[in-house]
Design brief:
CATH class: Alpha Beta
Radius of gyration: 15 Å
Order of helices and strands: EHEHEHEEEEEEEE
Keywords: Metal-binding
Shape: globular
GO molecular function, one term: hydrolase activity
Number of domains: 1
CATH architecture: 4-Layer Sandwich
Number of strands: 11
EC number: 3.1.4.-
Number of helices: 3
Enzyme class: hydrolase
Distance between the termini: 15 Å
Structural class: alpha/beta
Strand content: 25-35%
Strand order of the largest sheet: 3-2-1-9-10-11
Helix content: 10-25%
CATH topology: Purple Acid Phosphatase, chain A, domain 2
Family: Belongs to the metallophosphoesterase superfamily. YfcE family.
CATH superfamily: Metallo-dependent phosphatases
Length: 183
Amino acid sequence: MKLFFASDLHGSLPATQRVIDTFLASKADHLILLGDLINFGPRNPLPEGHNPIAVAELLNQYADSIIAVRGNCDSEVDQMLLSFPIMSDYHIVLLPTGQKLFLTHGHIYNADKRPPLKKGDIIAHGHTHITVAEWVGEQIIFNPGSTTFPRIEGEKASYGLLDGQTLSVCDFEGNTLHSIDIQ
């Protein structure tokens, strides 16, 4: 199973198109969206190419491949534009390895406030716009960063991949920023 992760699109059509293009090129089985899809949020500047309706229309074309969670900037009004569910605060995916992959945005559950997880389970979240792929205590903390507003100076827009036993964060130029073996 190959999973593609993106977070914090914030209504940017160019960022969303780049996500879709890279997702398709990766041949991943599913596109995991970790929240903040359409609204740019009151603390962020208006993103390049802000076009919430076009973002929704583009994402809807891939609805059967998308698993999404609600971000702190997502609302019921956003859900009205999308043909896949986004209003859950989390999803749990059971990996073939037996590990839980806990998907959330990061404003409720995150590296510092974790749900009950076993040793080796993974919490994947966005929200901070900061890339992470590392063991913290007994779990793996994974954040693919932001496709639109990277928070660390010099860091580029990024996404994540789970390919077999390897969990990676990559920029859209093909560089691996972080990589970790999940077993």
